[in-house]
Task: structure prediction
Amino acid sequence: MTDTRTPATALWVPVPERLQPWLIVIAGVLAVGAFAPFSIYPLSFLSLAVLFNQWLGDSPRRALRHGALFGLGFFSTGVSWVYVSVHVYGHVPMVPSALVAILLVLVLSVFIALTGYLCRRYLAAAGPAGLLLVLPAGWVLAEWLRGRIFTGFPWLDIGASQINGPLAGYLPVAGEYGVTWLVGLAAGLLLALVANRLRAVSAGLLAALLAGGYLLEHVEWTSVRGEPVHVSLVQGNIAQEDKWAPEHLERTLLLYADLTSAAAGSDLVVWPETAIPAFYHQVEDSYIPYLEEQLAVAGQSLLTGIPVLDRESWNYYNSIITLNGERGFYNKQHLVAFGEYLPLRWLIGNTLDALAVPNADFTPGGADQPLLEAAGYPVGTSICFEVAFARLINNTLPAAAFLVNVSNDGWFGRSLAPFQHLELARVRAKETGRALLRATNTGISAIINHDGSVQARSPQFEQAVVTGEIVPRSGATPYVRFGDWPVLVIAVICLLIARVRYKHQLAQSRQGAKNKR
Result:
């Protein structure tokens, strides 16, 4: 039987075989440059074009290996901050911390490796159809699965890298995964241009793709809901090693109260995740009433992070409380492995029990929590890593007038993570057509407009109060209305068409071989 897959050396753009593994690893590393803080968004097109070019000529086994190499370069660079979080700030010994980081990189790389293998093994993925139909669709489905399996890790999704690029206009329409697909398509068209395959058609399609994003930037998907809200984000810059120390508690509480006094003209003040480093019941009858009195005098609402202990169930929650005349709570739904729960406790043991707050034992909040209200509007709230999950944010819409994300990026130190985290918040704002307020302990705190642009931001590792105005909005973007399902369905249809086409090619090959006999 004749195999319709091309041999390993028949790349569209030939590369010496001894250089291929190195080129793939380098492409993976360079792909990180498309994301913040570098934000060189064309690198995503170039990196995927290099990988797709390799896959077009690979056998399934070689596609598996090259996909793994790309993933190792990509994730070992892009999520290197995991080691910093676990070892430096989680106080886990060096060897277990390194094992956690390595295991995460290996698991994430598997998704890319299997994409190459399955596309070559079952869909052929050769020629223009493979380049424009199979590989982009396969990549999208792999990213979607990565955001779901093992509780999900939707970090460094290629679509997020385009928030400053011409494809950003598609975010309110197709969401992050839809833009990921378009990046894959653009990579394929770029490769076709370089390889001189259907150059005129490829150039026309690529130009139309980019022009479409530009035109969509001028569409207002949501409408103004009310008068502008004057907001202030308070960044206390409390060192991680001091945050939970009992002797620093009073100083921390006074610091946030004093910084809030400097924002007296704001309608809404937002403090970071666990800005109050004490359980709610410990400050319920002392500090909270004091804050409420000050807020009432100033005519302000306050949203702040605070840990909560349910003294009936003895469950701990990472929460947000709103002080707005009435008190309301939001409990974090999606917890962070190794920071808020330990999936490998058998390996790490009780190492994290030394923390004053039992970060390893938080309980996730329910999915049906009512929206908090602040400054007279319903607010879509999220805590830290939750902003990476578009489906969680969309669950608050279209009811929410704006979004708030509180975080403690002090866990990340001086790594890439705070910049990548801010980038994800910008993507959520763009997808939903809602302003997003992001308050963090050490930075980067930011006021993000409904179009994903940053109105104001803080420096890192400094005390700061970021002040500005946001406009409450109503309505729903196409992405909020339909979510990821249109993109996923179309991707599956593309792969089914490719599978039928491939089986037809195999049948013709068998018939041809039979006729020759």
Notes: The chain has two domains: 17-219+484-516, 223-480.
